[in-house]
Write a structure and sequence with these properties.
Layout (H helix, E strand, L loop, with lengths): L1 H26 L1 H5 L4 H4 L1 H15 L4 H16 L7 H21 L5 H18 L8 H15 L18 H20 L11 H17 L4 H20 L3 H23 L4 H24 L7 H24 L1
Helix pairs in contact: 1-6, 1-7, 1-8, 4-6, 4-13, 5-6, 5-8, 6-13, 7-10, 9-11, 9-13, 10-12, 11-12, 11-14
Amino acid sequence: MQNTKLNSIALIAFIASELCYYLLIAQTGIIEHFSSNIYVIAPLPIGGVIGSLLTYFLKIKSEKKIFIFLFFQLLISFFYPNFSAIMLFILGISVGGLAPLIINELKKATPVEMGLALATSYTVGTSLFNTEPSGRVLIAIILTTVTLIALFFLPKKQSEIKNGLYEYSLFSMILWIYLDSSLFETLSRDVNISIWRDGYSLEIALFHIIGVFTAIRWQMQKNYKELFIIILFALSYLFYFLQESFILSLIYPFVISYYNVVILQTLIKKDLKTIALYMIFIGWFASGAGLFTALESLTLFVPSIFLISIFKIINSQQQYNKELHYA
């Protein structure tokens, strides 16, 4: 029993700490330190794509792959944030390689463990978000060390409890990541409204947690869930355009957590090769497109996507209803 509890705690810490590393270091810390210069930070996503491919093509045990990627991540973290192009490339390989392996380890998690891992990650990430991006070297080292230690206590067997009822298309997942990345990167650069800097950390953390466990516990038909996510994103963009910080700090964290659970519930049903390929598109290409949208001030054009998405979902639901009628 004690070993089972230890394995559960290790799995939660393992997932949560690496997700925090991605948010605080790879996604925000490095980008802000290098002033969002795409040409300077390009080695990071290039390395990330290569790392995702190496995840599958390295024919060694998953535990050894994770250890190797974490070792290089820890080594590079000591030099944060003064990374050369080579260091960014190596870090990209490490983070990109770890992402599919982390998701693969989630196959061992029960829905509650998944929820606790994500809730912990969002809470810690939110509380540390306002730290100076260039001063996160200790955070980078501690988070990687926690992940590395937890690796040696992970459970060996996959969970028999199924997570989620439906699988969602790669297109839908790319769309959600793009919408999130575009708004997140826009908010991070907007001097007039930033829910993280405007004193809403408690609300953000709380609604992240609510979003996680709502997605896990509240099941609905596939098309309705897709429509629900799109509507929440549409509301998030609406309240951003209206400069309504408080309402945005409730809705936006909720939809981030909600759709991420849906994506993870889909991905953990795939084999490692498919997860690695999917992560290239949703983890690097979609988020990169969102960053480009924010940097080029194209966010005002994003709402047009909602109309197309809603039409597609309604059409899909009509087809589904027809099939039920003729069945």
